[in-house]
Write a structure and sequence with these properties.
The complex is a heterodimer of chains A (351) and B (386). By secondary structure, chain A is α+β, with helices and mostly antiparallel strands. Chain A is 26% helix and 27% strand. Chain A folds into three domains: 134 residues, Rossmann fold (3-Layer(aba) Sandwich), CATH 3.40.50; 57 residues, Roll (SH3 type barrels), CATH 2.30.30; 76 residues, Elongation Factor Tu (Ef-tu), domain 3 (Beta Barrel). The chains are: A alpha+beta (351), B alpha/beta (386).
């Protein structure tokens, strides 16, 4: 339970179904530390909200400490990614390494829980062949299945997403109101939960070298300006490179070893082929190693026609039409509403 | 599910006689003890009677008892009050590595103010303070020594009489946080050479939010808060009449039952200690084997994490704690266990079981059946994935 309305309602729905429910809140920042992320779900204040919601539901509640795992697996990875010219996705890291790894393991192995329920907007369904399928939420506008693509059968068999079955956020709030949950009117959480202001300040503090000034170059090597550090740049972004050439230039590639930013026109930066690493599948790996898919390149992004070829240490993504996705971002393979798998765009992909 | 409560060191249920006495006060006596008319005098009588009861159990005079809001305030008042009253004459405070945070953090706070120097004396593997180490730590400018009587986490009882004799010999005041021991074991200030003693009602079946500080006659104590001058100016503020009455009754009842309860609980404690050591592989008993509170059985289980133990036991129907209740929710290993010389990873697997008046042999049987498989499961979970 994050302290927000979604996980509180998830608990309420399970309780209503007659399940034996235990609430767990994850402390994600060290206790007593003055955090500058006031709306982070892992702060003491959020924990108090979660505790109140659990009390209203009359379920046991535990505040468990995952600050170490979160710091190492999410915050450190976030900083390292920006410092090495990638664009991280902290929600993916948190789901992969904290919620559906450390927490799920504790829930099952330590506390004897049959399943872990979260307030994610996604669905898990039983297929006739006995496998569990990860599906988009009924409410497409709230769908969070993109950030859950790394779940495999092992995790999906132990996971429930009660909120994903609801029609929309209004229904969630109505249920919260019906259970008189104190979180019913709480505001939505922010994008990067552990950063309150500018994420660059965090990266600058933790990886000052990522803010060495460096050259801004065109693809042909011509220097067109200077930038204030690759830690503050994202592939695909337009502003911030300090270049005034009259053309609309976007960051095409970041080369951390020489602090260089390569820029290009819209045409130059979009591509059809990307190499993916850390590729995983929700069900069995596809037969034949090649398949057609609908690729989603960003959270709530539009599905794009693509072909995927699985290679020994990742996959090659071939889009039907050029598009842009930054290294470090997740590409998720869909078949209709079902998530088939996904991977992370490798830095220095062939372009 | 039937619950088994094994965390009497955190707090105890209020004795029915105490609850009745308090309810009577709340319903029938509304006067302010400072008022001179009949209603005020009626309240004053109740506070005075409680003070007499507390003094009698502690072997003290009623004027030596100051009521506070609990153990933490009593500790704060003792340390801050004595150091402030003696400022200019001395600036050195001696305490131990296993004190409750109410003492340790107060000492650190005084130190950071710049007026007080603090020496922290270590303990041995059983959590015992060597009186000779206290003697060696005392300097000409030492004002106060603070040594807890019984530790809240591991139950070890300190050689307070010897330490008191040393302090008296050197002309240094001795404070003892006896929050865990008063009510459970005999603590007679007419025999123990101690100058200040902290007491907390909810540790001996009294209400939460009320405690007392024994201040031996002749001990100068500055006040921490200013106001109407109650408690002879040592702790100002309108008295918590019902709470004070509850404390008085609770301590009197505890003293009456002490002989029988202490022996009965010690037998349950020993069954837990022997049973756990026999049934859980590699279990480590923390604290002294014999010089310990009659109700405390505390352990470390290498390979299991304390927080997980508490959750798993709770889900199985048992209330227990990992170290002190005041630091729960914190996975940092306890300063007490580290002070015993235990490694961090071992100290993280701590479990404290404290029996009480309602604990039965059947409860101990249930615990001894439930605990070993839980520890085994947690140890397994720590090394393999789902």
């Amino acid at each position: 339970m994050s302290g927000g309305v979604d996980s509180s309602v998830a608990a309420a729905l399970l309780l209503e179904r007659g399940e034996d429910v235990v609430g767990v809140w994850m402390r994600l920042v060290p206790g007593g530390v003055d955090t500058d992320a006031p709306r982070c779900c892992g702060t003491d204040e959020a924990g108090e909200d979660a505790r109140r919601a659990a009390a209203r539901l009359g379920i046991p509640f535990y505040a468990l400490d995952y600050a170490e795992a979160f710091g190492r697996q999410v915050v450190d990875r976030f900083v390292d990614a920006y410092a090495s010219g990638e664009t991280p996705n902290p929600c993916v890291s948190c789901n992969q390494h904290v919620k559906f790894d450390a927490l799920l393991r504790d829930v099952v192995a330590k506390f004897g829980g049959a399943r872990l329920a979260t307030g994610h907007y996604a669905r898990v369904a039983d297929a006739p062949d006995g496998t569990r399928r990860l599906l988009r939420a009924r409410d497409a506008a709230k769908d969070q299945s993109y950030a859950l693509y790394m779940l495999g059968q092992r995790e999906l068999r132990r996971t429930v997403f009660p909120i994903g079955e609801l029609a929309n956020k209004t229904e969630t709030r109505e249920i919260a109101a019906r259970f008189d949950l104190p979180t019913a009117t709480k505001a939505e959480s922010m994008d990067i939960c552990f950063v309150s202001g500018d994420y660059r300040d965090l990266v600058r503090k933790r990886a000052p070298r990522a803010f060495d000034v460096g050259p801004v170059e065109r693809v042909d090597g011509g220097v067109v300006g200077q930038h204030g550090g690759i830690g503050g740049l994202t592939v695909g972004q337009r502003s911030g490179t300090g270049v005034a050439t009259g053309e609309r230039l976007y960051v095409l590639r970041l080369e951390p070893e020489r602090s260089a930013a390569i820029v290009g026109t819209r045409e130059e930066i979009t591509r059809t082929t990307y190499e993916l690493r850390d590729v995983s599948f929700t069900r069995d790996k596809p037969r034949g190693n090649s398949f057609e898919t609908s690729a989603v390149l960003r959270y709530r992004g539009t599905p794009l026609a693509a072909a995927v070829e699985v290679i020994p240490d990742g996959a090659i993504l071939r889009l039907a039409a050029p598009a842009l996705v930054a290294p470090g971002q997740a590409v998720v393979f869909y078949e209709g509403d079902e998530v088939m798998g996904g991977g992370i765009v490798r830095a220095g992909s062939p372009g | 599910m039937k619950r088994v409560y094994l965390d009497h060191a955190a707090t105890t249920p209020v004795d029915p006689e105490v609850a009745d006495a308090m309810a009577r006060v709340l319903r029938e006596t509304h006067g302010n003890p400072s008022s001179i008319y009949a209603e005020g005098r009626a309240a004053r009588v109740l506070v005075d009677r409680a003070r007499e009861d507390v003094a009698a159990v502690l072997g003290a005079q009623p004027t030596e008892i100051v009521f506070t809001s609990g153990g933490t305030e009593a500790d704060n008042l003792a340390l801050r009050g004595v150091m402030k009253a003696r400022r200019g004459l001395g600036d050195h405070l001696v305490t131990t590595a296993i004190e409750h945070h109410a003492v340790l953090d107060t000492a650190r706070d005084l130190e950071s103010s710049g007026h007080v120097r603090v020496t922290i004396v270590p303990v041995d593997r059983d959590g015992r303070v060597d009186p000779a180490a206290i003697a060696a730590a005392i300097e000409p400018k030492t004002t106060l020594v603070s040594v807890m009587h019984a530790n809240n986490e591991i139950g070890t009882i300190q050689p307070i009489v010897e330490i008191g004799a040393i302090c008296r010999d050197k002309g240094v005041k001795l404070h003892s946080d006896a929050v865990q021991s008063v009510g459970a074991v005999d603590f007679d200030t007419s025999r123990i050479p101690v100058d200040l003693v902290s007491v907390n009602a909810h540790k001996f079946y009294g209400p939460k939010g009320v405690g007392a500080l024994f201040v031996r006659r002749g001990t100068r104590l500055a006040t921490m808060q200013t106001g109407g001058g109650q408690e002879k100016g040592r702790r100002t503020g309108t008295e918590n009449v019902a709470g004070i009455v509850g404390l008085g009754v609770a301590l009197r009842v505890a003293a009456e039952r002490r002989a029988t309860e202490s022996a009965r609980q010690a037998a349950l404690r020993d069954r837990i200690i022997d049973g756990v050591l026999a049934r859980v592989p590699d279990a480590i008993l923390t604290g002294h084997r014999t010089e310990r509170l009659p109700n405390n059985a505390s352990f470390c289980f290498p390979g299991a994490q304390g927080e997980s133990l508490i959750v798993a036991l709770d889900l199985a129907g048992f209330a227990a704690s990992s170290g002190s209740a005041c630091t729960s929710g914190d996975t940092e290993p306890s300063h007490v266990l580290l002070a015993l010389g235990l490694e961090r990873h071992i100290a993280q697997g701590s479990l404290r079981l404290t029996v009480g008046r309602a604990t039965t042999d059947a409860d101990v049987d249930a615990l001894l059946a439930a605990l070993p498989p839980i520890v085994a499961r947690l140890r397994e979970a720590a090394v393999v994935s789902v």
